[in-house]
Write a structure and sequence with these properties.
The protein is α/β, with parallel strands linked by helices. It folds into 4 domains: 1-33, no CATH class; 44-390, 3-Layer(aba) Sandwich (Alkaline Phosphatase, subunit A); 397-477, Arylsulfatase, C-terminal domain, CATH 3.30.1120.10; 487-598, Jelly Rolls (Sandwich), CATH 2.60.120. It is built from 14 helices and 26 strands. The chain has helices at 2-7, 10-16, 19-32, 71-78, 92-101, 105-108, 127-133, 199-213, 236-248, 265-291, 326-329, 356-363, 380-384, 459-477; strands spanning 46-52, 81-83, 86-87, 137-143, 161-165, 185-188, 191-194, 219-224, 298-304, 333-336, 345-347, 351-352, 397-400, 413-416, 420-424, 440-443, 487-489, 497-500, 518-523, 527-534, 542-548, 551-557, 563-571, 574-584, 587-590, 593-598. The strands form 5 sheets. The protein has a 10-stranded mixed sheet with strand order 7-6-5-4-8-1-9-10-2-11, with helices on both faces. A hairpin with a 2-residue loop joins strand 6 (185-188) and strand 7 (191-194).
Length: 600
């Protein structure tokens, strides 16, 4: 049929069909009917998923910020469909878990950003795994933040090419000591590499190289920036103009809520400089797609992982990162696919991080694996204009975050339907909640800035959303509970293993000098192991101690010693709690790193 159709003369086709209909008939035939000799459909769209870290809704020229310079993102937004009511979690790792799985983060084991609470259960099925199984080349460049050790690393979860940093950010406890945004040590397919350049440039260049290498195949490139997250390290050449602009210009639009305090000039200048650098890099990537003739059939998604970390202009939205108010969870989101999605359009239907996995699979015509429970819905009908938003079934989206090993009912949550939003904001940092904490209700359609609480006037809506939230909480908590995933030791996929303070747990776990924690691990193979503890000198003589599964060893420690090696420690297969500490006259403290290597 295809060959016969192509032999028809252009004159005949033009007589039979108007030009617009003719284009519609020809394009799907040419684009979607191609198959490689191996039977893999090469006409499917390529996927580029761009995620920034702590970029607020107001951190774009497109969103009426008069100071920040984001010309490439502004142009991209105009070329895209803009999701005007798009939501994520209040903090980064939970957002990333939902983005990768299409499921609420509580189902995945990810409840927070550190102290062992940002490790995703390896049994989760990721977007990268499904696309890789369908013949896509998959690569991640930047921030993973869902587990640094086997079996939770990006390369264990479907990404065939990885260039990432560890933990939640460069310079954090999971990183090599002294690592910075300029010339960082990054991890390429698991191997530490000393890089030359600025982190955002390095990640973008790696993504472009990946696309270039795989341009003749279907690919999924996940460009996941760690900027503009702290530390705010960026070129002075980019910062200087913003110092001047922010001192001289005071023309930010007056909308919604006033800022809770005056923004810090230096902090805002550095954030804007980091975002200008990201904008430049996104411009390079989009130009590369165009030059490789990949632009038309590449679905590009841009979004941020949560609201701004610091106080600054956020287009009148209330609160910021960490909050379930709009300023914490409503973020910019644009999607461009010239072949299928109309440019410069808006979608006001609510959507969230959980929706991108089913949407992308739908776009790629890849089936969701059997028995995989997704919380998100495919948005393709809405994005293409085939579904009427007014007829789209209403649903309620849920968001919750607070510190702690597991979530607590009613603490710091929001329930968002198409028209209303129920919010209980208290309890983010711990402390006792009132027995019946008051909940605020907002008509988001008429009150997008959450200025008028209508809970007392609409008790039936409050109860409806409250009941839906309670059912959701029990459902997601019942998926697998909140027992932590376990890091594997002695497995050939990662040997040696380095444990860091990113993933330790316990009541004294933290990042300070006096912190003390433990790691939940699984010994994959019995045998002899070399254990190396690394730590800051205490200045006192003491004892270095290691214990796991009933096996405890300790040795004397000199005042200025900063490491100790236990050469032959016999470990047996099974689960256990690994503890490593330094005991001196000043007390007991934990170590910075534990390296565990199974010996031949």
């Amino acid at each position: 049929m295809h060959n016969h159709f192509c032999k028809l003369s252009c004159d005949l086709l033009e007589r039979l069909f108007p030009v617009g209909v003719l284009c519609f008939l020809l394009l799907p035939t040419e684009i979607y009917a191609q198959e490689s000799p191996e039977g893999i459909d090469t006409g499917r769209p390529n996927i580029v998923l761009i995620l920034t870290d702590d970029q607020g809704y107001g951190d774009l020229g497109f969103h009426k910020n008069p100071v920040i310079q984001t010309p490439n993102l502004d142009r991209f937004a105009r070329e895209s469909l803009q999701l005007e009511s798009f939501y994520v979690s209040p903090v980064c790792a939970p957002t990333r878990a939902s983005l990768m799985t299409g499921r609420y983060n509580y189902r995945t084991g990810v409840v927070d950003t550190y102290l062992g609470r940002a490790m995703m259960h390896p049994e989760e099925t990721t977007l990268a795994e499904v696309l890789a199984d369908a013949g896509y080349q998959t690569g991640i460049f930047g921030k993973w933040h869902l587990g640094d050790n086997y079996p939770m690393r990006a390369q264990d979860q479907g990404f065939r090419e990885t260039l990432i940093h560890k933990g939640g950010g460069i310079g954090q406890p999971a990183d090599p000591p002294g690592n910075t945004y300029q010339d960082p040590v990054l991890f390429n397919n698991g191997n530490a590499v000393q890089m030359d350049g600025y982190c955002s440039d390095l990640f973008t260049n790696a993504a472009i190289d990946f696309i270039q290498t795989n341009r003749k195949e279907s690919f999924f490139a996940y460009l996941s920036f760690n900027c503009p997250h702290t530390p705010l390290e960026v070129s002075e050449d980019l910062v200087k103009p913003y110092r001047v602009k922010l001192q001289s210009e005071h023309s930010f639009p007056v909308l919604g809520h006033p800022l809770e305090s005056a923004p810090d000039l230096e902090t805002t200048s550095r954030v804007y400089a980091m975002l200008e650098n990201i904008d430049t890099n996104i411009g390079h990537l989009l130009k590369a797609l165009e030059e490789m003739d990949l632009e038309e059939n590449t679905l590009v998604v841009f979004l941020s992982d949560n609201g701004p970390q610091q106080v600054r202009y956020n287009r009148g939205l209330f609160q910021r990162k960490g909050s379930v108010y709009e300023g914490g969870i409503r973020v910019p989101c644009f999607v461009r696919w010239p072949l299928r999605i109309p440019a410069d359009t808006q979608l006001k239907t609510i959507a969230a991080h959980i929706d991108w996995m089913p949407t992308i699979l739908d776009a790629c015509r890849v089936d969701v694996p059997e028995n995989l429970q997704l919380d998100g819905k495919s948005l393709m009908g809405l994005l293409e204009g085939k579904s009427n938003p007014d007829e789209w079934p209403d649903r309620t989206l849920f968001f919750q975050w607070h510190r702690g090993d597991e979530p607590v009912l009613y603490r710091a949550f929001a329930a968002r339907s198409q028209n209303y939003k129920l919010v209980q904001p208290l309890g983010v940092r711990g402390g006792d909640l009132p027995e019946n904490p008051s909940k605020k209700l907002y008509n988001i359609v008429s009150d997008p800035y959450e200025q008028y609480d209508v809970a007392s006037a609409s008790p039936e809506i409050v109860r409806k959303l409250e009941k839906e939230y309670e059912e959701w909480f029990l459902d997601v908590s019942g998926s697998r509970g909140y027992a932590p995933p376990r890091i594997h030791l002695g497995d050939s996929n990662e040997n040696p293993v380095t444990l860091t303070r990113q993933d330790w747990r316990g009541p004294r776990a933290g990042r300070g000098k006096e912190s003390l924690g433990h790691w939940e691990v699984h010994v994959a193979e019995s045998g002899n192991y070399r254990i190396t503890l690394k730590f800051s000198p205490t200045g006192y003589a003491g004892i270095a101690d290691f214990s796991l599964r009933g096996n405890q060893v300790n040795v004397p420690l000199a005042p200025q010693q900063n490491s100790i090696v236990f050469s032959n420690v016999s470990l047996t297969v099974g689960q256990g709690r690994l503890e490593a500490s330094i005991l001196t006259k000043s007390g007991t403290r934990g170590v910075q790193f534990v390296e565990i290597e199974k010996l031949p």
